[in-house]
User: Fold these one by one.
Assistant:
Number 1:
Amino acid sequence: MFKNNNLYCFVASRQFNGKKWLIFILFLFLITPSVGWSKEAVPVAEDPVIEKRMLALTMDLRCLVCQNESIADSRADFSNDIRREIREQIKANKTDQEIVQFLVDRYGDFVLYNPPMKPTTMLLWFGPVILFVIGLGSLIVYLRRRRVQIEDVSLSQVQLERAEALLNKNKKGKNV
Amino acid sequence: MMRYLIPLVAFIVLAAFLLVGLTLNPRQVPSPLIDKPAPIFQLNHLHEPDKQMASKDNLGKVWLLNVWASWCVACRDEHPLLVQLANSGIVPIYGLNYKDERTTALQWLKRYGDPYTISIVDPDGRVGIDYGVYGVPETYVIDKKGIIRHKQIGPVTVDSLQKTIIPLIIELQKQA
């Protein structure tokens, strides 16, 4: 109380120019209890076991709002709701499989980062293997054909003589 | 000849795939709920919070469930169309006010018009999860047996109303 009164007088005094104002404001910052501003981070989950299971589950689930993020990473409202839903279901003793099925029933396979093997996803699963086999096949065909080509090319007698003549000419030229 | 033809064909195939990809919208995730019974709910009215509406109250008629919120910008785009549709008397529209404040929602309806036969409130988005809502606005066409026949993700447009939604509603209304 006493301190505040003094401050008040100080402010009210007449010779109060710009510089003093600045000092006064800085002084105010000094006496403001800065400890009160920061707070201990509130733990997100009451139960770390549930939280751990929830995180493990949501790591493999896609957020439908920001599609390149998992529900575990996303800060979208949508993901918040899904995380809450999953926590509640874990508390209600649902298995991981039941929880994932719950979400697939509502949002489709699209929420899964690991697509299930189904007729519609066959190409997705086996496409790369098929492409690899095609690539390997064409490589083998290409190499075989090339070997045949290399063997086929042989010089005729005339060509051989010409080549030799050229080589000899070069040799002589160098020696001179 | 083959030497030039194979890369050309490969390029054309790749270009065709990419071209088709350009016309697809990755935000449109097909809902697994199509042709499945609409999830049941029992929710409070927006205007009279002490009254409740259950999804089974609508059995026997074709109706639209429009998910909206006052914070949703795209909802403003489709709203005049919904008002028009409601005035035409083709189909009753029920509004699901999704994760919203009651007062702002009421103000919003006052300002932009109220096309809803009844507005119901889903304050924490639980019914939204059951319906697989991930991007407001969303509109569901539900038939007389309470089965979801169509889901419009994002705002309703003149095009989608004329080409898909209204013909479907008329078709469904003919069914027993």
Number 2:
Amino acid sequence: MTYKLEGWREPTLGENLARAGVSRRDFLAYCGVLAGIFAVGAGARPARAEEVAEALAAITKPNVVWLQLQECTGCMESTLRSGGTTVEEVVLNLLSVNYNELVMAAAGDAANQALADTNAEDHILVVNGSIPLKDGGIYCTIGGESAEEVLRKSAEKATAILAVGACAVWGSVQASKPNPTGAVGVDEIIRDKPVINVAGCPPIGEVITATVSYLLTHDAPPKTDAEGRPLFAYEQRIHDSCPRRAHYDAGQYVRSFDDEGARAGWCLYEVGCKGPSTFSPCPIFQWNLHTSWPIGAGHPCIGCTEKDFFDRFTPFYHVLPDVKGLGVESTAEKIGWGLVGATVAGVGVHAGLTALRRSAGRKLKLTEPLAAFGDESPAADAVGTPPSPTSPPEQAGGEGE
Amino acid sequence: MAERLVIDPITRIEGHLRIELETEGGKITKAWSETTQYRGLEEIVQGRDPRDVWAFVQRICGVCTSVHAIASIVAVENAIGSNPPEQARLIRDMVLGSQEVQDHVIHFYHLHALDFVNVASAAEGDPQAAVDFAKAIGSTWKGNTLERMTEVRDTVQGILDSGQLSIFTGGYWGHPDYRLPPEANLMAVAHYLDALEFQRSMIRIGTVFGGKNPHPNFLVGGMACSIDPNHTESINQVQVDQIGVWIAESLEFVKTCYVPDALAIAGVYKDYFDIGAAQNNYLAVGMSGATFAGDPADSDFTSAHTEVKAGVIFDGDLNNIQPFDPNKIEEWVHSAWYSYEGGDIGLKPSEGETTVAYTGPKPPYSWLADSDEYTWCKAPRYDGRAVQVGPLARVILAYARGHARTVEIVDDAAKQLGITLDQLNSTGGRILARAVECLTSAEILAEATFPTFVSNLKGGDIDVFDTTRWEPSSWPSKASGMSFVEVARGNLSHWVTIEGGKVARYQAVVPTTWLAGGRDADGQQGPYEESLAGNGEHPLVDPAQPLEPLRTIHSFDPCMSCAVHVLDPAGDELKAVES
């Protein structure tokens, strides 16, 4: 069909088609073709065009293209582990995931056809993985096309775009120095539409599926912070909701792994915890059916939901303010009060930028990223004079367009 | 007249794989295995703190999450002389064991089964007949109820009726070689859904010890999770009890659901024991989960299964097992987009080099194999030969070494299926070996690893961290280390050199690299290529629906992000040369 839908505004496909001016006759002709396709399976009685038309007209499930570009498949694995809205609920009931390399039945030409067909209509686009731009895109090709080309084609008619996982959001591990393949996140490529950034390496499965179901439930993207991360999941620093926070405030620190403090569940700040500069719901939602979470299992947070993970958070086992460029050896005791103060102020900035993004209703050039400990300026100054990022991401305003 | 066929993307795998084929008269005559993603991770880890590297290389793969982290940590410990306590090693063994069981189950149901199970036909299945079919094949899985089968049939019917086929869109449901009756397809789809539920639950063993999954946290020198039974915030009896339940559930699922299903499908598609043979050479350092710091010949076994020693088998000669020698591993770049300073030679991993030398076409492109170079994957060889690694290699080695439980399960299955041991080198053989190994792994987890851990706890053994080699000042100024780990897809080794407290050189030789690599300078094909085009007899009835080669490629459980890994030992910047 050559009709162009104007977006999914009516409850069903039938109503949307009527709104777009598609005649019943043309629709039936299309359904006749489809009936032929469906008839090949199962030896079932071939469906009539009218039957297909009736079913299709009542369609209420959004079609989804779920790309996997330059990545490790950890984000899909995390999706498989979601215990909230399960993956089977997502792919079988909530959505029609017509293209996803990990789980789809078709391969090769048949897969590419499913992708092209879905790209041709309105759809939700979910992206795992980064886009390697260097050397003409040779470092990741799918069906002979560069990852960038695959992404651009799928983004064209996408009604909502979700960048899921640290790679899709900021490039993550392969974008770490020296970034041999020129890997970038989705919003470095797609600049004319808002991109919802579901951060984390990987994100918690429940957060991935909840972002999708938020879209469906609210019929609108979730409110996000300045980095495009949904507030329902990334509103708080790990440090703010950490069950070990009382030990931090009391000066009770793990000094060495498996020492008495570690066994008693004391604060991991001194062995390198990045919780104070990491916005993530790990302590709240926890992982894998609420089983545990990184700090709960005794390891410091490594900051995987933040921009420039890994570079900005390594060495992992160094105390935060010593992470990069500060040249000061600070103990938790010495800077403890400064940290507490900066944390509170940081939340203020966070909320302010979010409000700005909400009210802007236009492209917003963010030159002031959320300051985090470990940035190349003293923590105490982080709020007042945030450092300029090397390449400021251009973000579209979320609501109010 | 030969026809050309491209399958790209190969779906239901990890990462990006392209297969180019030439076919004639319904048979495959030539095949090229082409990896189309490159990330440069080993270059990225150079100059970093060796204690951080596990987190970088863990991101080589999120499907085989944990395995690269553990291999990295063991290699670093080997280099710096760290000696993790026994309980920490057992924890890693439990994480590896549970990961492998989960991985094999996911592979069978979610990545491989749709090559044999017709989802569209499942809607035609009678629910009671599906229950009866399950009983007939010896499946005692608790999910085999009339209520469940009815619910699943209605779900499938609903999807077909809706016209939106979701992940089943474009599937080859009209292919003449889907052979299962509707009730068997219905049962298999029900188990596909049950397996999703199962993996969510049992993977939590890794979450208890590593805090999350995928990508749990690990620690050079031991584990970060304390196991003091008398602390609330420590792993204590509450978690130990949970783990006991999850392990028991794992064993139950593997025994009552996965193994009977795998045997049933292998039986219906029995001709696949004569299809898909690759090189009749096998390499393994032990059973699944076997972990060595350094050369297996003089390293402590760090895992509980000590029954099967490392070995290499050539030409299927089970009576003549060769000792494993790490110095016989070399990697070739003849067919890959890299160049070696010394030309078209093989290099040992400890001396490996990688300079990108892309000679392929600019994307978009339609055909790669006219050129000698066509992949990002190197081609490892052992003693100059292409070898198979993975469940098949391990099961054959365990069988040859007389591991009683493996011999018992394999002999029973072979008798039931009416196949000979020689036929294990096949697409069907790889399916069978994976199921056999999943069962022995679940048993070892339940009967050896976990009970030993609990018994040690009872004896007051709660140390999980070696503090003596944590500080870089305690390390030699220059040190090298290596690790060998048998992971879900086969033999994995990491090789590290540390200088002045930083990583100077890093290399990983990964299962899928062994299997997915291309031709070497001698024209020897990689195992994927050999399995498709080794004898010119691999079927491909309809090039528009390439179901048969998918069955064979999937039998290796490809993990492409793992396969591509590079290091430039000189620390030079990688140079891309465009054509």
